[in-house]
């Protein structure tokens, strides 16, 4: 095993220390169970809070943008690792569904019925579990989802869908700098992760590529000065679409 292959990188990482997916889920499940009906947020009519869904090319830095946005807007960040963890831990997702159903009887079952009838590409068990996870999380609070095609699951009227792109050279350079590896090594990593991402979307959503028509915004980060500019653009678009969140 080479030194380079020992360096772990999960899409979205940018050096910030974060809670593990398991710790995040445990903490939030406890918080949901402790929230009284009086202190719970008033549920939107169709059961889903306004959300932002980030779709991105691997290595562009979307998670950093999400974290910066969460400092500015009252939204929480749910990244790829958390979505994957909860989608695989069926008992955990079921607990969240049960807490939701206790407060808002009937809403979640209606949402799942709508999803399975309208989203015909959610065919296999994993895809349905992924949909249940994302929908339940979006039903708990306004959320910034990063990755896993959340914008393809949630009701479109509740979502600001944003696609971040940057070009291969930008992505390779950024990854090489983050991991302290060579251009060639970073290029190999990007190539492998691009293939994995493409295979995931083909398997779960029967899609070969992300069409611009799916999104409210497509932002090329190579043409922006820094992540804060992307934050301002998305925050403005969110407010224009949904208004100010209290």
Would you mind describing this structure in some detail?
This protein has 246 residues and is α/β, with parallel strands linked by helices. The protein has one domain: 3-Layer(aba) Sandwich (Rossmann fold). The protein contains ten helices and five strands. Strands 2-3-1-4-5 form a five-stranded parallel beta sheet. The model is unreliable at 1-5 (pLDDT under 50).
Compile the SSE list and pairings.
Blueprint: H1 3-6, H2 21-34, E1 51-56, H3 62-72, E2 76-78, H4 80-88, H5 90-103, H6 107-118, H7 125-140, E3 143-146, E4 159-165, H8 168-179, H9 183-205, E5 217-220, H10 227-242
Helix pairs in contact: 2-4, 2-5, 3-10, 4-7, 5-7, 6-7, 8-9
Output the keywords.
alpha/beta, Rossmann fold, five-stranded parallel beta sheet, 246 residues
Compact overview of the structure:
The protein has 246 residues and is an alpha/beta fold. Helix content is 53%, strand content 10%.
Q: Sketch the topology as an H/E string, one letter per element.
A: HHEHEHHHHEEHHEH
What is the averaged pLDDT score?
86
Largest sheet: 5 strands, parallel
Q: Which strands sit side by side, in order, in the main sheet? A: 2-3-1-4-5
In CATH terms, what is the fold-level topology?
Answer: Rossmann fold
Tally of discrete structural domains? 1
Shape: globular
> Got a strand count?
5
- Note the total helix count: 10
Rg from alpha-carbon coordinates: 18 Å
């Amino acid at each position: 095993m080479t030194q380079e292959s020992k360096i772990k990188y999960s899409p979205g990482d940018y050096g910030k220390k974060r809670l593990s997916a398991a710790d995040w889920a445990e903490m939030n499940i406890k918080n949901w169970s402790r929230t009284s009906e009086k202190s719970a947020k008033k549920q939107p009519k169709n059961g889903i809070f306004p959300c932002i869904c980030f779709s991105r090319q691997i290595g562009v830095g979307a998670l950093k943008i999400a974290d910066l946005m969460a400092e500015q807007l009252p939204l929480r960040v749910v990244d790829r690792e958390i979505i994957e963890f909860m989608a695989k831990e069926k008992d955990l997702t079921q607990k969240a569904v049960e807490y939701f159903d206790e407060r808002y009887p009937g809403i979640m079952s209606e949402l799942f019925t709508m999803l399975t009838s309208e989203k015909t590409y959610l065919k296999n068990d994993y895809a349905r579990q992924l949909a249940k996870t994302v929908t339940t999380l979006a039903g708990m609070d306004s959320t910034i989802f990063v990755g896993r095609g959340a914008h393809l699951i949630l009701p479109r009227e509740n979502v600001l869908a944003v696609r971040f792109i940057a070009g291969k050279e930008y992505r390779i350079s950024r990854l090489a700098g983050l991991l302290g590896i060579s251009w060639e090594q970073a290029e190999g990593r990007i190539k492998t992760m691009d293939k994995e991402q493409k295979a995931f979307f083909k398997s779960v959503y029967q899609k070969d590529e992300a069409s611009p028509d799916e999104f409210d915004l497509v932002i090329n980060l190579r043409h922006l000065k820094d992540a804060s500019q992307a934050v301002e653009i998305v925050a403005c678009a969110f407010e224009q679409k949904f208004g100010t969140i209290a």
